[in-house]
Amino acid sequence: MTSPVWNRRRLLQGAAVAGITASGLTGTAHAQQGGAADLVLSGGRVLTLNRGFRIAEAVAIKDGRVIEVGDNRSVRRLIGRRTDVIDLCGRTVMPGVNDSHAHGLRTGLALPPYTVDVGKPAISAVTEAVAAAIAQVAPGAWIRGKGWDEKKFAEGRPPTRQDLDQISPGNPVALLDWSNHQLWVNSVALRIAGITRDTPDPGGGVIVRDSAGEPTGLLLEGAARLVNERIPAFTEQEQADAIERNISLLLSHGITSYTEPGIGAVAQKLYADKARRRALRIRVTALLSRPDDTYPVSVAQVREILAAQQPLKGIDRRWLNIAGVKLRADGVPIGSRTAWMREPYVGGGRGGLLTVGASDSEKVAELTAMVALVHRAGLQIGTHATGDAAIDAVATAYASSRPSDQRHYVIHGDFAWPETLRLLARNRCGVSFNPNIKRLIADTQPGVVGPERAAYQTPYQSALRAGVQVTSASDTPNVSPHWLQGLETILLREGNSGTVSGPEQRIGVQQALRTYTTAGAWQDHADHWKGSLEPGMAADLCVLDGTLLDERGRLAVDAHAISDIPVAMTLVDGSVVYDSSDKSARAAATAAQNAGWARNPNPEHMCANC
């Protein structure tokens, strides 16, 4: 298609990023009192995502809000001498995407130059990348990496510290896997951390050992902290730059809001500083974690978080809102088998809760007490739970707290069975699924949990049938923030090989789009002012360079082609914040896209995380 036509100079300068008042006029009244629109987009297919899923041709915007949605003729009356007009040339306009679970700071830090891309097809290729990085740093400097996947290694075996020792006898190396649940380190890193054959496994973690009892260099779950706490922290400036790089990346995907699931004091300060300077460019809802950015697994740690929390001052909550606390119940149901399951994995073991306690019942009691503590503080709770037993425990804990409108939710929710989903629905709780993760692991899951559970995993249809509020999220940087790939996966439920996994859990395209827009706004307690394109709602828009739906709201392209549709433009608060025709914006987005985990719509080492 040809590029959309508009007065570019005024469009980029005309609408300053500003907060939206909680009370406002309706679109018609606002248009009568405020005169002409600031911006009109016409000649396209506008997916309003309102209750009736109305499809229009044009949308008018003033002061950061939608003031009219309709056919070209009805909206044209709002065009004045100073109105900027974009001819959509048939493109699709929809509400900006609300990514309900995206690690923004981590995403920025997962990009070069902060982190080495080690998502390689062989251990030898990983060591080559690490050797190249070592050549650029001083002796003794730490090398951080991310993205490796043991199942992809040509050598057909787990990596070891000896693999890294050959090329890094003096620099400590710490390489996080694709799932954020395994850390591969060299002998220098083990020595610095004081890990020997006599070091006991820490609570919630495993130090993998060889037949002689020596550490192999693999640290699972909580054991990774033994090394991570010795790695020098990124500076505040590095973290601030990383947040900015993440924002540019997300905006290039049409994402206008996201939930940052677990931030400590430094990240909160950096986000707040940007919000006060009106420089955030994207809307952020955040959940708190511990000061060291790890997730609480005990009541004592939750108390620390609540005691340290400082109220936000001088900040429009529609740009930054600290909504609650992130808790963590278990691990992940992949090769590490750390999710807590009702029935054993293929090969044995059921995983377990990561909360403190000497038995399952004690751990469940601790989790329930953690939920109750946050709930009584009046805050929202998002709890990482992937195994069915863990989800059962979380749903029961939510129910016992008798939530009203705090909108607690389960993060990931891989194996939430119908009876548990109904319990969540009765208590007005939600679940946040990760379709890109489903695509990544679908082919290998039968060997981990068996074919029946693998097919059911990420049960969109069951959740909607139960009446649960269902959101879709990327879990970036463990998965690419490419939400169109996620939409494609929701509709097809295909793994990387093309094999279908659980077709009975497919849902329709209109339902799927709501999980990325209106449901995300619900999770944010913001469905009264964002998430749909109606008069009075926030003018947060994603413009796709193609036709997604026909005039009757049906899919207009082959589902396999959805992920190939480019994002042409992103607007937040009525201002263009990403434009694919702008060279500088495209260059910034491309630099981020070229990172290993985000380099294409279907990277091989995207993944599930906390």
What attributes does this structure have?
eight-stranded parallel sheet; Urease, subunit C, domain 1; alpha/beta; disordered N terminus; Amidohydro_3; Amidohydrolase YtcJ; 19% strand; single chain; six-stranded mixed sheet; globular; 22 helices; Diaminopimelate Epimerase, Chain A, domain 1; 610 residues
Question: What is this entry, summarized?
Answer:
This protein has 610 residues and is of the alpha/beta class.
Can you tell me about this structure?
InterPro entries: Amidohydro_3, Metal-dep_hydrolase_composite, Metal_Hydrolase, TAT_signal, YtcJ-like. With 610 residues, the protein is an alpha/beta fold. Among the domains are: 8-96 and 534-598, Urease, subunit C, domain 1, CATH 2.30.40; 115-228, Diaminopimelate Epimerase, Chain A, domain 1, CATH 3.10.310. The protein has 22 helices and 24 strands. Helix 11 (299-308) links the parallel strand 16 (283-288) and strand 17. It is globular. The two termini are 40 Å apart. The relative contact order is 0.15.
